[in-house]
């Protein structure tokens, strides 16, 4: 309906503004301060980044109620992996926040999202530019695996701090005889992360074929 389409357009616009601000801020800071800006990335843009990622949880609801026709599982995996890495790993360990991998990760996330939300906004109005469509469904295939590698590396560099500080590790009281050692949980999650990456990449190729197939290109040109 017109109301739902307007709501989705406003949602995409909000996300576009947020990610564009982050992306522009990162570039300006790097051009101004050089490598010194990398270690301060999280403290400069972390709040807006967290707000944008929390807002993205609504996309799962959009699919569940049927106003977004995207597949649920791939989108759920992509949103979940970002939430876990951002809030559980980076936000909880101040020592990790200054690592260069955080800057690389934020750059990849925001570059992908600026393109995606631009495409989505125009699509809500029935506007399809072939170069933007090609960029949206091709750039993700190129950059998404790299973002997952950056997420995996962020988890890897965080392990010594989780081991030292015991963050999220729980020793259950009597009569339970076992404890939850969080670094082991993160190591198991790494396997899930890369397994999910293979599934999502296959879905990205399917989406690219569906939108950039010969027949679809002709229809959008006409």
Automatic annotation (TrEMBL):
InterPro entries: Tyr_Pase-like_PTPLA. One of its GO terms (cellular component) is endoplasmic reticulum membrane. Its EC number is 4.2.1.134. One of its GO terms (biological process) is fatty acid elongation. It is a multi-pass membrane protein. It catalyses: a very-long-chain (3R)-3-hydroxyacyl-CoA = a very-long-chain (2E)-enoyl-CoA + H2O; (3R)-hydroxyhexadecanoyl-CoA = (2E)-hexadecenoyl-CoA + H2O. It is an enzyme of class 4 (lyase). The chain crosses the membrane at residues 6-27, 47-67, 127-144, 181-201. One of its GO terms (molecular function) is very-long-chain (3R)-3-hydroxyacyl-CoA dehydratase activity. It comes from the Eukaryota. Pathway: Lipid metabolism; fatty acid biosynthesis. It holds the Pfam family PTPLA. It is found in: Endoplasmic reticulum membrane; Membrane. Its main location: endoplasmic reticulum. Keywords: Endoplasmic reticulum, Fatty acid biosynthesis, Fatty acid metabolism, Lipid biosynthesis, Lipid metabolism, Lyase, Membrane, Transmembrane, Transmembrane helix. Belongs to the very long-chain fatty acids dehydratase HACD family. PANTHER family: VERY-LONG-CHAIN (3R)-3-HYDROXYACYL-COA DEHYDRATASE (PTHR11035), VERY-LONG-CHAIN (3R)-3-HYDROXYACYL-COA DEHYDRATASE 4 (PTHR11035:SF16). Catalyzes the third of the four reactions of the long-chain fatty acids elongation cycle. This endoplasmic reticulum-bound enzymatic process, allows the addition of two carbons to the chain of long- and very long-chain fatty acids/VLCFAs per cycle. This enzyme catalyzes the dehydration of the 3-hydroxyacyl-CoA intermediate into trans-2,3-enoyl-CoA, within each cycle of fatty acid elongation. Thereby, it participates to the production of VLCFAs of different chain lengths that are involved in multiple biological processes as precursors of membrane lipids and lipid mediators. This is Very-long-chain (3R)-3-hydroxyacyl-CoA dehydratase. It comes from Chloropsis cyanopogon.
